[in-house]
Amino acid sequence: MKKLGVVGSIPAASTVSPGLGNVRSRIWYAPLDSLWSTGWAIVDTGSTRREAALRDRESLGTDLPVHRSDGLQLLRHVLLEAGGSFQRREPPLAHRAVLAMGNPSPVAAAFQSAFEREFLPLLKLLGFVAGKPKKGKPGLIVALATRALTPESRLEVMLWCQAERPLLRFRFDRVEPIQGVECSGQIALDVPWQDPAFPKPLSLDSSANEFLPTESPERLSVAITFLAGAFAASLPTRAQEVPELSEALRAAAATAEWKAAVDRAKELWEKRHMRGEVDEREVPATLVFMGANLVTLEAEGERLTFRMDTKALDRGLPWSVSRWIKNPAGSLVALRLINGKRAWDFDARGQFLGEAGKASR
Asked: What is the value of pTM for the model shown?
Protein backbone atom coordinates (compact mmCIF):
# COMPACT_ATOMS: atom_id res chain seq x y z
CA MET A 1 0.00 0.00 0.00
CA LYS A 2 1.40 3.40 -0.97
CA LYS A 3 2.05 5.65 1.98
CA LEU A 4 -0.11 8.69 2.48
CA GLY A 5 1.71 11.97 2.82
CA VAL A 6 0.67 13.87 5.91
CA VAL A 7 0.57 17.56 5.20
CA GLY A 8 -0.12 18.76 8.71
CA SER A 9 -2.86 19.88 11.04
CA ILE A 10 -4.74 23.20 10.97
CA PRO A 11 -7.19 25.07 13.18
CA ALA A 12 -10.89 25.03 12.36
CA ALA A 13 -11.98 27.29 9.53
CA SER A 14 -8.40 28.06 8.43
CA THR A 15 -7.00 27.42 4.98
CA VAL A 16 -4.02 25.44 3.75
CA SER A 17 -0.91 27.56 3.33
CA PRO A 18 2.33 26.76 1.47
CA GLY A 19 3.97 26.14 4.82
CA LEU A 20 1.91 23.03 5.27
CA GLY A 21 3.47 21.31 2.32
CA ASN A 22 2.99 20.68 -1.37
CA VAL A 23 -0.61 19.55 -1.81
CA ARG A 24 -0.80 17.60 -5.04
CA SER A 25 -4.41 16.80 -5.84
CA ARG A 26 -6.86 16.22 -2.99
CA ILE A 27 -7.02 17.30 0.61
CA TRP A 28 -9.25 15.26 2.84
CA TYR A 29 -10.32 16.07 6.37
CA ALA A 30 -10.12 13.13 8.73
CA PRO A 31 -11.97 13.40 12.05
CA LEU A 32 -10.09 12.23 15.13
CA ASP A 33 -12.35 12.24 18.15
CA SER A 34 -11.54 9.05 20.00
CA LEU A 35 -7.79 8.46 20.05
CA TRP A 36 -6.35 11.95 20.41
CA SER A 37 -9.15 14.03 21.91
CA THR A 38 -11.28 16.19 19.64
CA GLY A 39 -9.64 17.60 16.53
CA TRP A 40 -9.06 17.33 12.82
CA ALA A 41 -5.99 16.52 10.72
CA ILE A 42 -5.44 17.13 7.02
CA VAL A 43 -4.11 14.28 4.96
CA ASP A 44 -3.06 14.54 1.32
CA THR A 45 -3.97 11.32 -0.43
CA GLY A 46 -2.63 12.40 -3.80
CA SER A 47 -3.86 9.87 -6.33
CA THR A 48 -4.11 7.09 -3.76
CA ARG A 49 -7.70 7.38 -2.61
CA ARG A 50 -8.52 3.78 -3.43
CA GLU A 51 -5.24 2.56 -1.94
CA ALA A 52 -6.21 4.32 1.27
CA ALA A 53 -9.45 2.41 1.50
CA LEU A 54 -9.92 0.43 4.64
CA ARG A 55 -10.14 -2.79 2.67
CA ASP A 56 -13.82 -3.30 1.90
CA ARG A 57 -14.87 -0.23 3.86
CA GLU A 58 -15.14 3.30 2.66
CA SER A 59 -12.04 5.33 1.88
CA LEU A 60 -10.46 7.69 4.32
CA GLY A 61 -11.78 10.72 2.47
CA THR A 62 -15.51 10.06 2.63
CA ASP A 63 -16.37 9.14 6.19
CA LEU A 64 -13.68 7.69 8.40
CA PRO A 65 -15.21 5.26 10.93
CA VAL A 66 -13.71 7.18 13.84
CA HIS A 67 -15.04 4.82 16.48
CA ARG A 68 -13.44 1.76 14.90
CA SER A 69 -9.94 0.99 16.06
CA ASP A 70 -8.66 -0.12 12.65
CA GLY A 71 -9.48 3.24 11.08
CA LEU A 72 -7.86 5.14 13.92
CA GLN A 73 -4.82 2.91 13.94
CA LEU A 74 -4.39 3.40 10.18
CA LEU A 75 -4.47 7.16 10.51
CA ARG A 76 -2.18 7.05 13.53
CA HIS A 77 0.27 4.92 11.52
CA VAL A 78 0.12 7.42 8.64
CA LEU A 79 0.84 10.35 10.94
CA LEU A 80 3.75 8.67 12.71
CA GLU A 81 5.34 7.21 9.56
CA ALA A 82 5.39 10.62 7.89
CA GLY A 83 6.70 12.34 10.98
CA GLY A 84 3.44 14.18 11.41
CA SER A 85 1.92 15.37 14.62
CA PHE A 86 -1.53 16.03 15.96
CA GLN A 87 -2.57 19.06 17.98
CA ARG A 88 -5.89 19.50 19.70
CA ARG A 89 -8.17 21.84 17.77
CA GLU A 90 -11.79 22.86 17.82
CA PRO A 91 -13.33 20.81 14.99
CA PRO A 92 -15.05 22.44 12.06
CA LEU A 93 -18.69 21.54 11.53
CA ALA A 94 -19.27 17.82 11.65
CA HIS A 95 -21.24 17.88 8.44
CA ARG A 96 -17.94 18.42 6.61
CA ALA A 97 -17.37 14.71 7.03
CA VAL A 98 -20.35 14.10 4.76
CA LEU A 99 -19.43 16.62 2.05
CA ALA A 100 -16.90 16.07 -0.72
CA MET A 101 -13.89 17.33 1.17
CA GLY A 102 -11.09 17.90 -1.26
CA ASN A 103 -12.76 20.07 -3.85
CA PRO A 104 -16.38 20.54 -2.73
CA SER A 105 -18.94 21.28 -5.39
CA PRO A 106 -20.26 24.87 -5.59
CA VAL A 107 -23.51 23.63 -4.03
CA ALA A 108 -21.74 21.94 -1.11
CA ALA A 109 -19.47 24.95 -0.57
CA ALA A 110 -22.41 27.37 -0.58
CA PHE A 111 -24.40 25.15 1.79
CA GLN A 112 -21.50 24.78 4.22
CA SER A 113 -20.52 28.46 4.16
CA ALA A 114 -24.07 29.80 4.61
CA PHE A 115 -24.83 27.43 7.48
CA GLU A 116 -21.62 28.34 9.32
CA ARG A 117 -22.04 32.05 8.69
CA GLU A 118 -25.78 32.57 9.15
CA PHE A 119 -27.41 29.73 11.09
CA LEU A 120 -24.88 28.23 13.48
CA PRO A 121 -24.10 31.49 15.38
CA LEU A 122 -27.81 31.86 16.24
CA LEU A 123 -28.03 28.25 17.36
CA LYS A 124 -24.97 28.68 19.58
CA LEU A 125 -26.79 31.47 21.42
CA LEU A 126 -29.32 28.80 22.43
CA GLY A 127 -26.70 26.31 23.54
CA PHE A 128 -26.61 24.17 20.37
CA VAL A 129 -23.39 22.61 19.12
CA ALA A 130 -22.55 21.10 15.74
CA GLY A 131 -23.33 17.40 15.55
CA LYS A 132 -22.40 14.61 13.20
CA PRO A 133 -25.31 13.53 11.01
CA LYS A 134 -25.98 9.87 10.40
CA LYS A 135 -24.76 8.65 7.09
CA GLY A 136 -27.23 9.36 4.29
CA LYS A 137 -27.56 8.59 0.63
CA PRO A 138 -24.73 9.53 -1.77
CA GLY A 139 -24.97 13.16 -2.79
CA LEU A 140 -26.90 14.18 0.32
CA ILE A 141 -25.56 17.33 2.01
CA VAL A 142 -26.50 17.61 5.68
CA ALA A 143 -25.92 20.01 8.57
CA LEU A 144 -26.90 19.10 12.11
CA ALA A 145 -26.83 20.96 15.42
CA THR A 146 -27.91 19.49 18.75
CA ARG A 147 -28.63 20.65 22.30
CA ALA A 148 -28.69 18.17 25.16
CA LEU A 149 -31.71 18.38 27.46
CA THR A 150 -31.09 15.32 29.63
CA PRO A 151 -28.66 12.43 29.25
CA GLU A 152 -31.33 10.66 27.20
CA SER A 153 -33.00 13.52 25.29
CA ARG A 154 -31.94 16.37 23.04
CA LEU A 155 -33.10 18.97 20.52
CA GLU A 156 -31.96 18.73 16.89
CA VAL A 157 -31.91 21.27 14.07
CA MET A 158 -31.19 19.76 10.67
CA LEU A 159 -30.85 21.16 7.16
CA TRP A 160 -30.31 19.00 4.11
CA CYS A 161 -30.44 19.01 0.33
CA GLN A 162 -29.27 16.95 -2.63
CA ALA A 163 -26.10 18.15 -4.34
CA GLU A 164 -27.52 17.61 -7.83
CA ARG A 165 -30.92 19.19 -7.17
CA PRO A 166 -30.63 21.29 -4.02
CA LEU A 167 -34.21 21.50 -2.79
CA LEU A 168 -33.63 22.66 0.76
CA ARG A 169 -35.36 21.06 3.75
CA PHE A 170 -35.40 21.92 7.44
CA ARG A 171 -36.50 20.12 10.62
CA PHE A 172 -36.60 20.98 14.31
CA ASP A 173 -37.01 17.90 16.50
CA ARG A 174 -37.15 16.78 20.10
CA VAL A 175 -35.45 13.39 20.40
CA GLU A 176 -36.20 11.29 23.49
CA PRO A 177 -36.66 7.65 24.48
CA ILE A 178 -40.17 6.22 24.58
CA GLN A 179 -40.33 2.79 26.21
CA GLY A 180 -36.65 2.34 25.52
CA VAL A 181 -36.83 3.36 21.85
CA GLU A 182 -35.33 6.67 20.68
CA CYS A 183 -38.06 8.64 18.94
CA SER A 184 -38.11 12.01 17.16
CA GLY A 185 -41.02 14.40 17.48
CA GLN A 186 -41.07 17.38 15.16
CA ILE A 187 -41.65 20.85 16.58
CA ALA A 188 -43.54 22.48 13.71
CA LEU A 189 -42.56 26.06 12.88
CA ASP A 190 -44.32 28.35 10.41
CA VAL A 191 -43.12 31.33 8.41
CA PRO A 192 -43.93 34.20 10.79
CA TRP A 193 -44.84 36.70 8.06
CA GLN A 194 -48.19 36.66 6.32
CA ASP A 195 -48.43 36.18 2.57
CA PRO A 196 -51.60 37.42 0.85
CA ALA A 197 -51.34 34.57 -1.63
CA PHE A 198 -51.66 31.94 1.10
CA PRO A 199 -54.55 32.02 3.59
CA LYS A 200 -52.70 29.63 5.90
CA PRO A 201 -49.15 30.17 7.16
CA LEU A 202 -46.47 28.33 5.22
CA SER A 203 -44.49 25.66 7.04
CA LEU A 204 -40.86 26.53 7.61
CA ASP A 205 -39.92 22.95 6.62
CA SER A 206 -39.97 23.63 2.89
CA SER A 207 -40.47 27.41 2.73
CA ALA A 208 -36.86 28.01 1.70
CA ASN A 209 -37.70 26.57 -1.73
CA GLU A 210 -39.67 29.77 -2.41
CA PHE A 211 -36.21 31.24 -3.01
CA LEU A 212 -35.51 28.75 -5.83
CA PRO A 213 -32.29 27.32 -4.34
CA THR A 214 -31.92 25.03 -7.36
CA GLU A 215 -31.28 28.11 -9.49
CA SER A 216 -27.72 28.70 -8.28
CA PRO A 217 -25.43 28.31 -5.25
CA GLU A 218 -26.05 32.00 -4.52
CA ARG A 219 -29.80 31.39 -4.25
CA LEU A 220 -29.11 28.42 -1.97
CA SER A 221 -27.12 30.73 0.31
CA VAL A 222 -29.97 33.25 0.35
CA ALA A 223 -32.43 30.48 1.25
CA ILE A 224 -30.30 29.37 4.23
CA THR A 225 -29.94 33.00 5.35
CA PHE A 226 -33.73 33.27 5.30
CA LEU A 227 -34.16 30.02 7.25
CA ALA A 228 -31.82 31.22 9.99
CA GLY A 229 -33.76 34.44 10.58
CA ALA A 230 -37.16 32.83 10.15
CA PHE A 231 -36.23 30.20 12.73
CA ALA A 232 -35.23 32.97 15.13
CA ALA A 233 -38.50 34.83 14.50
CA SER A 234 -40.81 31.82 14.76
CA LEU A 235 -39.22 29.98 17.68
CA PRO A 236 -40.86 32.20 20.35
CA THR A 237 -44.28 31.14 19.02
CA ARG A 238 -43.49 27.55 20.08
CA ALA A 239 -41.69 28.40 23.30
CA GLN A 240 -44.20 26.39 25.34
CA GLU A 241 -43.07 23.22 23.51
CA VAL A 242 -39.42 23.77 24.47
CA PRO A 243 -39.51 25.25 27.98
CA GLU A 244 -35.88 24.21 28.42
CA LEU A 245 -34.92 26.99 25.97
CA SER A 246 -36.94 29.76 27.62
CA GLU A 247 -34.07 31.44 29.47
CA ALA A 248 -31.59 31.11 26.59
CA LEU A 249 -34.23 32.28 24.12
CA ARG A 250 -34.94 35.45 26.10
CA ALA A 251 -31.25 36.27 26.26
CA ALA A 252 -30.66 35.48 22.56
CA ALA A 253 -33.67 37.50 21.37
CA ALA A 254 -32.22 40.59 23.08
CA THR A 255 -28.95 40.47 21.10
CA ALA A 256 -28.27 42.62 18.07
CA GLU A 257 -27.20 39.52 16.13
CA TRP A 258 -30.57 37.84 16.65
CA LYS A 259 -32.57 40.97 15.78
CA ALA A 260 -30.54 41.61 12.62
CA ALA A 261 -31.11 38.02 11.44
CA VAL A 262 -34.89 38.38 11.92
CA ASP A 263 -35.00 41.71 10.07
CA ARG A 264 -32.93 40.33 7.22
CA ALA A 265 -35.14 37.24 6.86
CA LYS A 266 -38.30 39.38 6.80
CA GLU A 267 -36.85 41.53 4.02
CA LEU A 268 -35.75 38.46 2.04
CA TRP A 269 -39.20 36.91 2.38
CA GLU A 270 -40.90 40.05 1.05
CA LYS A 271 -38.51 40.19 -1.92
CA ARG A 272 -38.09 36.47 -2.59
CA HIS A 273 -39.65 36.68 -6.06
CA MET A 274 -37.54 39.67 -7.06
CA ARG A 275 -34.11 39.89 -8.60
CA GLY A 276 -32.15 43.07 -8.04
CA GLU A 277 -33.32 46.38 -6.63
CA VAL A 278 -36.66 48.08 -7.30
CA ASP A 279 -36.59 50.79 -10.00
CA GLU A 280 -39.00 53.49 -8.82
CA ARG A 281 -39.32 55.36 -12.13
CA GLU A 282 -42.85 56.03 -13.39
CA VAL A 283 -43.54 55.16 -17.04
CA PRO A 284 -46.64 56.17 -19.12
CA ALA A 285 -48.72 53.16 -20.20
CA THR A 286 -51.39 52.38 -22.80
CA LEU A 287 -54.57 50.49 -21.97
CA VAL A 288 -54.77 47.23 -23.94
CA PHE A 289 -57.68 45.47 -22.24
CA MET A 290 -59.84 45.86 -19.17
CA GLY A 291 -62.36 43.36 -17.86
CA ALA A 292 -64.18 42.96 -14.56
CA ASN A 293 -61.17 41.49 -12.72
CA LEU A 294 -58.21 42.11 -15.00
CA VAL A 295 -56.47 44.99 -16.74
CA THR A 296 -53.63 44.76 -19.27
CA LEU A 297 -51.35 47.70 -20.05
CA GLU A 298 -48.38 48.19 -22.37
CA ALA A 299 -45.35 50.17 -21.21
CA GLU A 300 -41.90 50.30 -22.77
CA GLY A 301 -42.75 47.36 -25.00
CA GLU A 302 -43.82 45.15 -22.09
CA ARG A 303 -47.34 43.71 -21.70
CA LEU A 304 -48.28 43.96 -18.03
CA THR A 305 -51.35 42.24 -16.56
CA PHE A 306 -52.86 43.21 -13.22
CA ARG A 307 -55.58 41.13 -11.57
CA MET A 308 -57.94 43.18 -9.41
CA ASP A 309 -61.50 44.46 -9.18
CA THR A 310 -61.50 47.13 -11.91
CA LYS A 311 -64.60 49.04 -10.76
CA ALA A 312 -62.39 51.76 -9.31
CA LEU A 313 -60.48 52.26 -12.59
CA ASP A 314 -61.39 54.98 -15.12
CA ARG A 315 -60.62 54.38 -18.79
CA GLY A 316 -60.57 58.11 -19.44
CA LEU A 317 -57.77 58.93 -16.97
CA PRO A 318 -54.05 58.64 -17.74
CA TRP A 319 -52.36 55.30 -17.10
CA SER A 320 -48.83 54.65 -15.88
CA VAL A 321 -46.79 52.06 -13.98
CA SER A 322 -43.84 52.23 -11.58
CA ARG A 323 -41.69 50.17 -9.18
CA TRP A 324 -40.06 47.93 -11.79
CA ILE A 325 -38.33 44.69 -10.84
CA LYS A 326 -37.10 41.54 -12.56
CA ASN A 327 -38.82 38.28 -11.66
CA PRO A 328 -36.96 34.94 -11.40
CA ALA A 329 -37.55 34.33 -15.12
CA GLY A 330 -35.74 37.58 -15.94
CA SER A 331 -38.85 39.43 -17.15
CA LEU A 332 -39.56 43.03 -16.17
CA VAL A 333 -42.59 43.44 -13.92
CA ALA A 334 -44.20 46.62 -12.57
CA LEU A 335 -45.41 46.43 -8.97
CA ARG A 336 -47.55 49.58 -9.05
CA LEU A 337 -50.46 50.44 -11.32
CA ILE A 338 -51.38 54.15 -11.51
CA ASN A 339 -54.67 55.45 -12.88
CA GLY A 340 -55.11 59.19 -12.60
CA LYS A 341 -54.12 60.13 -9.04
CA ARG A 342 -54.73 56.71 -7.49
CA ALA A 343 -52.33 53.80 -7.32
CA TRP A 344 -52.48 50.09 -6.45
CA ASP A 345 -49.67 47.79 -5.42
CA PHE A 346 -48.95 44.19 -6.46
CA ASP A 347 -46.26 41.68 -5.57
CA ALA A 348 -43.81 40.12 -8.02
CA ARG A 349 -46.29 37.32 -8.83
CA GLY A 350 -49.06 39.78 -9.68
CA GLN A 351 -50.89 39.23 -6.39
CA PHE A 352 -53.01 42.28 -5.48
CA LEU A 353 -51.82 43.95 -2.26
CA GLY A 354 -54.14 46.97 -2.02
CA GLU A 355 -54.39 50.66 -2.80
CA ALA A 356 -51.21 52.65 -2.33
CA GLY A 357 -52.92 56.05 -1.99
CA LYS A 358 -52.40 59.02 -4.25
CA ALA A 359 -49.60 58.67 -6.75
CA SER A 360 -46.92 61.34 -6.73
CA ARG A 361 -46.80 63.49 -9.84
From this structure: 0.60
